[in-house]
Amino acid sequence: MGSGLQRAQSFVIVATLLYRGSHLTVGVLAVAHRLSQPLQFVGLAAALGLSVLTYGAALRRGRFDPRHIWADVLVTGCVLPLALCVWGGVREPPTIAWAMLLGGSASAAAAIALQRLHAVTVVALLVVTHVIGYEMVGANSSVVLGHVNSLVSSAVMTWVFRWYLLRQGRLLDDANSRALAAEAHKARYAERLEHHRALHDTVLATLTTLASGAVDANAPEVRERCSREAAYLRRLIQQTADEVHHRQIGTALEEAVRSVESLQLRVTAQYHALPQVPPEVAAALGDAVREALNNVRRHAGTGHAYVTATGDPDRPGGAVVTVVDRGPGFDPERCEPGLGLRGSVHGRMAEVGGRATVDTAPGEGVRVELRWPG
């Protein structure tokens, strides 16, 4: 489609082409009634040929060629009317009117294709031609003034029309540029936010656990996890690879379970009739479960969590995943959700069209439910 400016320019060309087409239609009808005047056929053929050359080239290139405009003005707008008066046997204003009409579309094209001084020169030349031509056939002053007004107004209105459309095209291009810049900024922010979430759920969770002394830093599972997260950090710094989305819910959940089990949290997991979901949904469920299990390890005061994943019985194709612990729980009215729950659990599910709910009370543990509707 091109830019807004290019579309505006193309529309102006089409509009002037239709204007010329209406004048040529009048010419064909007028000449068809005068079969005894062959010069009129020759003149109409010349006007048709120049119109095809001028407007055809403009449609292909997206702009008028000034040389074609000058040829059209001189032949169609100036020579043709005077030739009909001198050699075509035209003696009455109605018999030359169709040729004079072509001057209006010639002035319109010149107004948008030529420099301002050249366009004014063309309009002046066409006005002189009209005055001379109508004087030769004895037209009264009202006819002359009417056609002169048509010449000038065609040029002025077409110029204004073009100026307005090009201005709107530039505004549209500017708006599109701003929108693209905003989308790029939004994409960069979303990517940065996703990296922050991943760091929070992986590296920060590991470092916090190691700092608390809750696990043996030399344990093989812990060292393996540290190695994986160091590789992730290296990719993040070098920007040489993207996070690979999991293709199955089971694969995503198993990786999340293994990740927290390496930090000595025991997880009992049960899966049943898992549906096929888009890769980004599986990744979101896996990442949300990982953060929910990290919260169990950090806050629940228990070394055991339960993960259950099934298809949604109420929505075919949907999925329901729950993470449960039997810790002390908390009062939702008095505890503000942290970054992990807000961004890594609720935020991730919302981004893929799902939702997360947290059911807890003091002394009753915590139940996190993740639902994706399918």
UniProtKB/TrEMBL annotation:
The chain crosses the membrane at residues 12-32, 38-57, 69-90, 119-137, 143-165. The keyword DNA repair does not apply. It holds the Pfam family HATPase_c. The keyword Transmembrane helix applies. GO terms for molecular function: ATP binding. It comes from the Bacteria. Residues 283-373 form the Histidine kinase/HSP90-like ATPase domain. Keywords: ATP-binding, Kinase, Membrane, Nucleotide-binding, Transferase, Transmembrane, Transmembrane helix, Two-component regulatory system. Gene3D superfamilies: Histidine kinase-like ATPase, C-terminal domain. This is ATP-binding protein. It comes from Streptomyces caledonius.
